[in-house]
Amino acid sequence: MTPAVVCPVPPADSPLVLLAHGGGGRLMRRLIDEVFRPAFADPALDAQHDGAVLPAGPHRLAFTTDASVVRPLFFPGGDIGSLAVNGTVNDLAMSGARPLYLSAAFVIEEGLPVETLRRVAASMKLAVDAAGVRVVTGDTKVVDRGKGDGLYLSTAGVGAVEHDRDIGPAAVRPGDAVLLSGDIGRHGMAVMAVREGLGFETPIESDCAPVAAPVLALLAAGVDVRCLRDPTRGGLAAALTEVAEVAGVRVHVEEAAIPVSEPVRGACEVLGLDPLAVACEGRFVAFVAAGDADRALAVLRGYPVSAGACRIGTVEAGADGLVTITSTVGTRRIIDVGSGEQLPRIC
Amino acid sequence: MTPAVVCPVPPADSPLVLLAHGGGGRLMRRLIDEVFRPAFADPALDAQHDGAVLPAGPHRLAFTTDASVVRPLFFPGGDIGSLAVNGTVNDLAMSGARPLYLSAAFVIEEGLPVETLRRVAASMKLAVDAAGVRVVTGDTKVVDRGKGDGLYLSTAGVGAVEHDRDIGPAAVRPGDAVLLSGDIGRHGMAVMAVREGLGFETPIESDCAPVAAPVLALLAAGVDVRCLRDPTRGGLAAALTEVAEVAGVRVHVEEAAIPVSEPVRGACEVLGLDPLAVACEGRFVAFVAAGDADRALAVLRGYPVSAGACRIGTVEAGADGLVTITSTVGTRRIIDVGSGEQLPRIC
Asked: Could you give the domains of chain A?
């Protein structure tokens, strides 16, 4: 066999990520050993195998994935790491599952400071600890300069469904109460404010947070939960419309009942955006049987992340899949989900 | 609330992916409905929920992830779609697991032809069918022109570990036989040949293929399987070195026993590469108890993907974590895993 070609040896202590960090050699292992393994400190990662082998119990599984491409990587209230973790944890919670395990796949643009990776990994670790989950497997790839945007981060999550309910749009029935866990629009406006250089007196912080605890508490309390949905991309408008369409029902909400903070409302006015269409990352909508609505709100208000829970509407008969809203001045209109990208790359 | 800003409406039938396709609105749903849902045709996807809820049985789980950033997207013998699926399926198999479910997260550069996405999705579907797995959940993000390279694709996989063995480097013992499932270097050289514009008489095809079937057959036959590893990035050299280091043993192989096809050998000579360091995507190394080696080879040779299985070496006493090789002319040397990127972005 031919000898390996002699390449210039990349500096082992480069403060910037090099293409060589993605090659499967010593530099990649060093990056993993020095940045990712200490950050997540998990025996499943220390086994250094291609996948993690994990106990799961006798339950059904929930499985979900997110690609995070937010720009900038850091914003008030979060960063791409906490966003990826909470996004995946919350998607599992929306299946009524207890989040257990996360994977993390990093696509890094050559030239990203290694220190940035460390900050992202540290933020992910705080987020997984807060959510009670573990990062158990991962992958690291490096792409050429100009072929990325610093860092893209894909997470997948596995959770245990510890009940027999089928939570989803198909379970929604006319008469169900529509609950919202708190005020909307913080995440989208926090990112947009940074990106557009808007200097508000009070910076808007993303609501990025895990919502699994109040969801599991609803289920433990025996609340008849029909469907759960987190209003991320496309905001509350898209979340409600998707459920209405798939469930084949009409959903009606009251604008006056939907909490929007003053800073978010102000920023939306400046940018000409509708808060209903702005992403949240720590909120969810719960469709519950009408008779359980008050009890559900009491449960939700016991958790800081959903302390602002309120009832915003009702599922109505009508298979048209529409979402209607009564405005603060009493007029009723149809909520239209936009055709495209109101706020690019906010998650 | 302020009315939604009136944006120019993007054309719904654009043949190119637009930023608007990533915004959570109608265009994104149309892309998902017209490209991804038909391609994967799975009830879990039709539920249109944030995550999939799935039966798993009483077994331990295997969980793994891959980010695929191969360039070009299509190459002889495969493409980014089949590569992502087989990479994840094979990582599950390396844990001794039966692959069950896959997630797929697409990071698409604005301007990618929708037709390219269709081709990738169709290729993924062929690959998941061949491997007997299902794509059950996904995510779609679009990044600005110049901030990607067409398409990055992250897959995660869940499998069931239907046995009580702990397969991994920690189980490797001196005396174990080192088996290789076929010839090496096809995938890396197939990609490099396209990228470097090398015109070989016989194009080299990637070995990209699922290897779960022969792995499960080994386990079903009761072969004492100690560790499994697929020689992807960094090739056979990196795979053996990683196992030797983590296991704390010495691994010795015979160069004459390691199959390399003539086209791969020739291409490696042209490019000055060592076939031992070139990635495979349809091969694996099995460390098995010495007494089971012949039986294991007989099992492997019963499957087309591992018909070329052979014994290449032995685990020796010695906690130095080194891999040594006896060359075809009889000299013994240490295999060094390169420090960095011999072949960037081949997976």
From this structure: 52-161 (3.30.1330.10), 169-334 (3.90.650.10)
